[in-house]
């Protein structure tokens, strides 16, 4: 009984410390814990650093491929089309872009073990172009574009 009424009898500091303790007990301890993912190793949620490196590799690769076709002029916005293609097709069928394969991460569906598929890959890519959905994360390591497309990026 003391535990129930003690917090208001002991004053506001005690109530605040009890609330913090309860919040700490319910908070996940690692990214992906609520989804049943391991804390480390293969199958765990990919870190933001790995995802950023993969994204930068894909952007540079898209620019180089496009520059090969537009030389001697700069590729301009055509690089976006190339980036879209080298993102959507590999993610749809293989689960990873060239940059993701390099840093050993991949995209998986949260609801099943099936391939990501073209509609989800197009949605992820389109939302990445908006930038904001790709940089706002939850504690499970999923950004808005992952949550809206029902995917997660995992380590290999």
Brief digest:
The chain is mostly helical and 156 residues long. It is 58% helix and 6% strand.
Give an overview of the whole structure.
There is one protein chain. The chain is mainly alpha-helical and 156 residues long. The protein has 2 domains: 1-30, no CATH class; 33-155, no CATH class. It is built from 8 helices and 2 strands; from the N terminus they run H-H-H-H-H-E-H-H-H-E. It has a two-stranded antiparallel sheet with strand order 1-2. The termini are far apart. The model has no long low-confidence stretch (mean pLDDT 85).
Question: Which runs of at least 5 residues are low in confidence (pLDDT < 50)?
Answer: none
- Encode the helix/strand succession as letters: HHHHHEHHHE
- Average pLDDT taken over every residue: 85
Estimate the global geometry from the Cα principal axes: elongated
C-alpha end-to-end distance = 50 Å
Helix content: 55-70%
Strand content: 5-15%
Number of separate strands:
2
Overall structural class, as computed from helix and strand content, comes to mainly alpha
Radius of gyration: 21 Å
Strand order of the largest sheet: 1-2
For the report, how would you describe the main beta sheet?
Answer: 2 strands, antiparallel
Number of helices: 8
> How many domain units?
2
Give me some keywords for this one.
mainly alpha, 156 residues, 2 strands, 8 helices, elongated
